[in-house]
Amino acid sequence: MALTLDNLDSRSEGRPDQDALPHHSPNQPPPPEEPARRRRSRWWWLSRGLAALLMLLFLTIGWLAITAPLSKSLQPISPPQITLLAADGTPIARNGAIVDAPVEVKKLPIHVIQAFIAIEDRRFYSHWGIDPRGIVRAMWSNVSGGSTQGGSTITQQLAKFTFLTAERSLTRKAREVLIAFWLEAWLSKDEILERYLSNAYFGDNAYGLRAAAMHYFHRKPESLTPAQSAMLAGLMKAPSRLAPTNNYDLAERRMKLVLQSMVDAGYMTPAQARAIRSPRLDVRSKNDLPTGTYFADWALPQARGLDEASYAAQTYKTTLDSRLQAAARRAIENAPLGQAQVALVAMRPNGEVVAMVGGRDYAKSPFNRVTQARRQPGSTFKLFVYLAALKEGWKPEDTIENTPFEIGYYRPQNAGGAYSRTITLADAFARSSNVAAVRLFQKVGDKAVIDMARKLGVTAPLPQGDPSLALGTSSMTLMELTAAYAGIAGNRFPVAPSAFKAKEEGWFDGLLSGRSSLSDGVHENMEALLRGAVNRGTGRGARIQAANYGKTGTSQENRDALFVGYAKDLVVGVWVGNDDNTPLKGISGGTIPARIWRDFMQQALGERSAPRPRAIESPDPQGPVQPLDVPDLGDIPLGNSDLRVEKGGAVFSTQVGGAPVDVRLDQNGLQIDGRKVIEQIMPSSPSESPPPGP
Fold this sequence. Notes:
It is a single chain. This protein is of the alpha+beta class. The protein folds into three domains: 194 residues, Biosynthetic peptidoglycan transglycosylase-like (Penicillin binding protein transpeptidase fold, Orthogonal Bundle); 275 residues, DD-peptidase/beta-lactamase superfamily (Beta-lactamase), CATH 3.40.710; 27 residues, no CATH class. It has 23 helices and 15 strands. The strands form four sheets. It has a five-stranded antiparallel β-sheet, with helices on both faces. The longest helix is centred in the N-terminal third of the chain and has 35 residues. The protein is elongated and about 100 Å long. The N terminus and C terminus are likely disordered. Keywords: Carboxypeptidase, Cell shape, Cell wall biogenesis/degradation, Glycosyltransferase, Hydrolase, Membrane, Multifunctional enzyme, Peptidoglycan synthesis, Protease, Transferase, Transmembrane, Transmembrane helix. One of its GO terms (molecular function) is penicillin binding. Pathway: Cell wall biogenesis; peptidoglycan biosynthesis. In the N-terminal section; belongs to the glycosyltransferase 51 family. In the C-terminal section; belongs to the transpeptidase family. InterPro entries: Beta-lactam/transpept-like, Glyco_trans_51, Glycosyltr_51/Transpeptidase, Lysozyme-like_dom_sf, PBP_transglycosylase, PCN-bd_Tpept.
């Protein structure tokens, strides 16, 4: 058949060709294709729905494993208490929570467990992490105007204070429920209860049942009486408000409510509950030490890193020297500072910090100007410029131009307009010539100067291409600047400042330490420059009998005044300035900072006795507690024991088999109080012992 235009048009309009149609007899219906598609569609959605649920389950388990690792519930939720001692053993600060070793449910008396379960989660051993009946009861009580109740189980409480924040939201509550199911799936009921009791907060900064029992009753938890157990269980509702040391009447009323709950649960009879008398507190530990000082705030993070995730209270001896700290405080008290702030740090050439004053009054401003304030070092930075030059072969007797000049828009100037055609490096360093320092900086190159500063441990930003860097325009902390000078003092750098005694470094350790030193010639020449700055230069106000080395520094517009130097085995940095960065009036590095440095060094090196304080009132720079500052030393920790000085006698407290024992020495002789040992190995009296729970 010929292909006509009409045929072509019909094909182009989409009419199907008859040959392409399926062949069916007129009486045979077409196959049921649509129902088959629907059956496949349902199975497709069902299989993918199951896959999505499985994927969600795996993602949830993975999320819980990452965000709620079971091991975290074994760790203390608050950092344990740390006591810092000075090098002579004098306590200087105490910080952190009162925590102790975890408890074991099988070793606790039955009435201890019953008290907590009766008041906190009566169906603890029968639910799966959440208690629907408890939730409904709490909702009804809250809606009907009764006492406000939370409805959280012990498992939920463990999930909340171990893994979550105190945020109040539906999202946080949903995470709490998920984690509760997670804990119930992987831990036994006794393990959950143990972790709950070992980490819960009991007020008075005490975390965990063992710490609380020792704090309030001076008794280990395995020997708690029913009355003591009920009072401790009652604290869970509001630990800070109900702490018996703060409000015994409230704690006592709450204890009676716990006893009534134990009666309602069938753990004891009403007669037994009525026979129980309120317990007597036996609080032995008192904290007369500050929770922080400038030095303690800096040392504490280092101490935390020494023993992570420990329940036990720790005591660490620091490098702080009580005598030198007192000398630093007196040197500052006797300085005419006006309204200016001050900072002083003293360290050994190996970085062991022996004295630190971060400001005039810690109580008013705990901001540490030794470690936290970043200020311009002024001419003390010239150390790196001259050291780079000496390393490249320059000598102290070499000369350099000392006339005014400009570098683009920058024009360095000498203080007082003192210029000359040339000047030796020794004189330029001693007189702190700015134009000579900038010229020397240009000759050796900024890269060499910055590299030298980095080798000496300076980590502050040091911009390249800026000639004013030679005059100390880049800010840094007094600590890192003083540590750089310590590297010169010991000819071993970089020096890492530390609050704890440095480990002895063997010959092989020295090879692998990555530390450097100067050649003998370069080191001698640098010390000659530093010595000249004190003997005949801007640092004359710091002269002492011993050979001393140092450099003054005064930043732009007299905003910062510094003196950094060393003598014998002490390296000391002093800074004076205003916190608002306003200019100082009549103060430069060679005046008050140099005199404070001198006064401190004279006391430290025994060149003169400690001066009497000025007659006028001076702010207390708040150093650590000194033995002569406090008539009662308080408690001195000795491992797991402590020594207290009280009521004209000394009391040594220790433990025998976990039971506390006190040994007292006074005018009546030696007395040993071992009642606690007897009490804790003898069973409780019949009137206080409830029958075993069901």
